[in-house]
Amino acid sequence: MTAAIPFANTYARLPERFFAEVPPTPVAAPRLIRVNRDLADLLGIDPDWLAGPEGVAVLSGNRVPEGAEPLAMAYAGHQFGNRVPQLGDGRAILLGEVVGRDGVRRDIQLKGAGPTPFSRRGDGRAALGPVLREYVVSEAMAALGIPTTRALAAVLTGDSVMRETVLPGAVLTRVATSHIRVGTFQFFAMRGDLDGVRALADHVIGRHDPDLAEAPDPYRALLARVVARQADLVARWLLVGFIHGVMNTDNCAVSGETIDFGPCAFLDAYDPAAVFSAIDEYGRYAYGNQPGILHWNLTRLAEAMLPLLAPETEDGIAVAQDVLAAFGPRFEASYYAGLRAKLGLTTVQDGDGDLARALLETMGANRADFTLTFRRLGDAALSAEGDAAVAALFDDPAAYGAWATRWRARLAAEPVDSAIRRAAMNRVNPAFIPRNHRIEAVIEAAIARDDFAPFHDLVTVLANPYDDQPAFAAYAEPPQAHERVLRTFCGT
Ligand code: AMP
Ligand code: MG
User: Fold this and answer.
1) What residue segments make up the domains of the chain, in order of their start?
2) Which long-range contacts (CB under 8 A, 24 or more apart) does 376-379 make?
3) Which of 108, 113, 224, 405 is the most buried (most CB within 10 A)?
4) pLDDT band for position 489 (cuts 50, 70, 90)
5) What is the pLDDT of residues 168-204, one digit of tens each?
6) How far apart (Å, rounded) are the C-alpha atoms in residues 134 and 262?
7) Which ligand minimizes its atom distance to the CA of 263?
8) Ligand 1 within 6 A of 174 CB?
9) What is the pTM of this model?
10) Atom 11 (ligand 1) nearest CA
11) 79 CB within 6 A, ligand 1
12) What pLDDT, on the 0 to 100 scale, is given for residue 488?
């Protein structure tokens, strides 16, 4: 008999102090909410088996599948700027790794699978709401083409969890190219465990950046890679209006994937100061602060890797500074290239940055919906008849008109046909994002009425964010005043 999940584990081969071996804790009455069939297929897992009784037993933690080596990973981190030498998977259990049909190695992890030695005072469980949110948003990010962890499945446990109220418990099966975080490096660095830092860096190079093994200075090259990947990632977030909400160093993956969809949110009206997370009292993780915070996090990574960068501390610092200096230019290049594409510009001209910033400023001053403004610009690019629908999104429609005049003058210098331009714009300006009020409605229906139809609908719409999907037009709309979500909660 071949194993149902083709595990090929490597993290479990690392030294013992990297993790704690711990099996999932069984639950009362597992019930499948959804299996991500395409992802199962990519991983080499039969989707029918996964959605059947044996698969659901695995997804709920009631059965440890053949080849799994369940463990909780150790990590540390800075939470809201405060150093925490020990965090670790407190409610997530890594079953193991599989190499997919695409040749990519990925972790399969159960989130909400019971206590681990890292649970501290937590119960190791997840409530239904955050599980649905993570499923919806992580899969939406994947469909938007943004590097992210994925959702393989969501199951109800049949047990209750105690939060502010009693809530249904659930488990999310998360898939990631790895769950190694900036905080994983910090875990060893904070203990002065240089061998640990080195073993981790070697593992990351082998896993994510095998080409660097032959580089003249592999650790420096690794740091530079992570800086570049993360700079590109945060640029992508800004370009779709995503606010992570809890960019602690333990939620910053060295793979460059978006991880941890706790209090995350998407902008409706454009506002660089937007904060949704109820625990982000001072707006540390506001939309517009994300690049600066990322630089701060990457500086923590460089610190943790310092002894690998040079034998003498001073020299290590010089290397780190050199590598980190590339962050700003990399982020800017990525962000402005993205903005140019959003505006339909295929060539680069002086003044493009000003043009983009002027639009964003006007949107901010006029509370224009971020997603719809860019989406409708595609029609405006085709013909000025499209202007009215964009202008209608601005408190003062004339403010858009003034900017559009500048934009048209710039478009005149573009070599591209307007129909091609519109098509290209629609491939980078989504019509559909996981709007906060839609997510709330999904969670409400599931908890209050055991109704998962809104969840399935939302997942379906968001699988094709760049298509118009007229049948789902309402999902493109911003919230009405009474639907607006002002606060999001991690719900841990
Ligand atoms: P997060 O805010 O999800 O990044 O989690 C921060 C830390 O708290 C991690 O070490 C988590 O594993 C841990 N944690 C969060 N929720 C729970 C829970 N319900 N039980 C145990 N540990 C938890
Ligand atoms: Mg986390």
Assistant:
1) 11-179, 183-335
2) 377/342, 377/343, 377/344, 377/425, 377/429, 378/344, 378/422, 378/425, 378/426, 378/429, 379/422
3) 113
4) confident
5) 999 999 999 999 999 999 999 999 999 999 999 999 9
6) 7
7) 1
8) no
9) 0.98
10) 90
11) no
12) 85
3-state DSSP assignment of residue 145: coil
> Bridge-partner residues for 156, per DSSP?
31, 170
Residue 31: exposure state from Cβ atoms within 10 A (0-12, 13-18, ≥19): middle
Kindly give the distance from the C-alpha atom of residue 39 to the centroid of ligand 2, in angstroms, as a whole number: 22
**Residue of 226, 229, 205, 227 lying closest to 215 (CA atoms):** 205
Q: For residue range 372-428, what is the model confidence (pLDDT) as tens digits?
A: 999 999 999 999 999 999 999 999 999 999 999 999 999 999 999 999 999 999 999
Residue of 127, 84, 129, 91 lying closest to 110 (CA atoms): 91
Measure CA 113 to chain center.
21
Per the listing, tokens 């602060």 go with 289
Substitution site in 73, 157, 492 for ligand 1 pocket (most atoms within 8 Å of beta carbon): 492
Element (H, E) at 20: strand 19-21
CB 384 within 8 A of CB 409: no
Ligand closest in space to the Cα of 262 = 1
pLDDT tens profile 137-160: 999 999 999 999 999 999 999 999
